[in-house]
Amino acid sequence: MTPEELLAFDREHVWHPYAPMPARHANHAVVSARGVRLTLADGTELIDGMSSWWAAIHGYDHPVLNAAIIDQLGRMAHVMFGGLTHPPAVELARTLLDLAPAGITKVFFADSGSVSVEVAIKMALQYWRARGVDRPRLLTVRGGYHGDTFGDMAVCDPVNGMHHLFTDVLASHVFAPEPPAGPDEAYTRELERLVAEHAHELAGIIAEPIVQGAGGMRFYDPSHLRTLRRLADEHGLLLILDEIATGFGRSGELWGADHAGVVPDIMCVGKALTGGYLSMAATLCTDGVAEGISASGEAPLMHGPTFMANPLAASVSLASLGLLAERDWRTEVKTIEAGLAAGLEEARAMPGVADVRTKGAIGVVQTEAPVDVQRVQAAAMAHGVWLRPFGRLIYTMPPYISTPEEVGRITAAMTAAARTLA
User: pTM score, two decimals?
Assistant: First the structure.
């Protein structure tokens, strides 16, 4: 197909995420990607300010990641994980446990971040049912996002999230207010009250540590995460931390939980795990969780994705984590953070801008009203940058390999996009 034919067919027949069918606006055809740049069908080059939804932390067409997939492809592309195992999965599990907070000892591989959260929820519920106790609910905080499958949707923000259309068919959970940006004794008391009131029916607590991602790109004080850990301990609940967006250095620490010095009972990882090459995620847990689920002997953990522990994905994940270990990613992220903070400061005083904030390799311009996605993207693309705004957010999560000049172009594009608000 010609580029025009491709886009015409795409618009009429290919359903894209969070979009109507047929599409109201044409998508942009990408024909190649290298480093931090995407090349469109018409030859336009764009700096990818999104890291392909926060996953491509090493950029595109990386020779080490390419080689890992090619090497594994010559051995086997896939094999079922039921009753079988293979070196890439075992080595990846060992690497993840070496990196995970102390006390995390078990790995369940999933095929997407959403599925890893589904598994975490199942773990929490089945942990209690193995004890003969029915605790069907979780406590979480407003402003959160955990995925698009049904279990996940039920613990996303029920009002301002993306899933309000399904509220009447989702499981009912307990929601605390959004965690504040700073320490707040009144908020702590409210958490204490809610957990005490509902502890008898709660299997656990689930939250994104420190950074709330697609629910609003909000950052909150580590003290609130420590409060959740304390309350889980006091009431015998499991603490689930969703590190899918925050894991592998995005917030400036290897794990979001590291900002607070807490260890979860269950932890979800994904996105940057494979360096953006393939879909893979994992749900990690402690000995106590695994033993609690298995002790009754009634049923194993009832989940098993077809592509669980896919060898290609496991091999490229190992290579991605190896690159992370070899590079000074902390300095890279700090440099990006400084560049984002300086470059976005201009937007703070612009009409229509409600807030500007940065955390690690995350930069956010929050607007007073929902943005016109097409107008914002056009302004960013005019500056040679790809952004994907949503709601009241113009934001970036660039690859860690982005240079100061490239970060400067991203912030220039974001400020130009912010000017369109007026």
Answer: 0.96
37: part of which helix (H) or strand (E)? strand 37-40
Q: Which residues of the chain have pLDDT under 50?
A: none
Active site residue 271: yes
Asked whether the beta carbons of 167 and 157 are under 8 A apart, the reply is no
What does residue 265 show for φ and ψ, rounded to 5 degrees?
-85, -35
What pLDDT was estimated at residue 326? 96
Give the residue numbers of the binding site for substrate.
53, 145, 271, 304, 388
Active site residue 359: no
Q: Which helix (H) or strand (E) holds 356?
A: strand 353-358
pLDDT tens-digit profile of 171-220?
A: 999 999 999 999 999 999 999 999 999 999 999 999 999 999 999 999 99
Separation of alpha carbons 355 and 349, rounded Å: 9
Q: Give dist(CA 245, CA 146) in Å, integer.
A: 10
Active site residue 145: yes
Look up 106 and say whether it is catalytic.
no
Distance of alpha carbon 65 from alpha carbon 61, whole angstroms: 8
